[in-house]
Amino acid sequence: MSWEIIGKYLPLYQKAAVLTVKIGFIGIAAAITIGLLCTIIQYYKIPVIRRIVSVYIEISRNTPLMVQLFFIYYGLPKIGIQTDAAACGVAGLAFLGGSYMSEAFRSGIEAIAPIQEESAYSLGLSKLQTFSYVILPQAFSISVPAFMANVIFLLKETSVFSAISLMDLMFTAKDLIGLYYKTAESLFLLVMFYLIILLPVSVLGSLLERRSRYAGFGS
């Protein structure tokens, strides 16, 4: 292990880490949005669209992210839809993560007693108000552990972006190993940067879980 080599490689990993975090969190934000929309569609049992959402969730959850990335990066240009590696990475995370986020939200909603919805209607709340002020806050509280697990899972899945030549952490490590054969130093930096990214997210998830517990939910 050469600390001189580690110091030399450090700027390359810092640049790759910024790109990894940027694409990761944009993709996760899109995944949360997609997941919430899918949950609303399933909650209101919207005809036809509900079936489409169910098919999307099954396809997304049962195919690897790498296959999805290859389809977006290499397949879409065949039908005239051009995309770069960064946009492909965001789209891949959003497509995969949307289904997982939807299932996390759905599990939280299903854990809420039906009498809560009935009580909200009896008080004169509309369906939208009931979902926004009664159902969703409690569902989120229950879903926090699964939600944060999905965030960490998606951040770790960014490691496959190297397959589409995106200069992320994994690509940088593989590139340096291939060029200079400094395996120990390259892998050490790879592990350390993933820990730097993921540990704060894990700690934040634990804090959020504790703060969001109330009335026995999430315990």
From TrEMBL:
This is Amino acid ABC transporter permease protein. One of its GO terms (molecular function) is transmembrane transporter activity. Coiled coil: none annotated. The chain crosses the membrane at residues 20-43, 131-153, 187-208. One of its GO terms (cellular component) is ATP-binding cassette (ABC) transporter complex. Pfam families: BPD_transp_1. Its main location: membrane. Belongs to the binding-protein-dependent transport system permease family. HisMQ subfamily. It is found in: Cell membrane. CDD domains: TM_PBP2 (cd06261). Residues 17-200 form the ABC transmembrane type-1 domain. Keywords: Amino-acid transport, Cell membrane, Membrane, Transmembrane, Transmembrane helix, Transport.
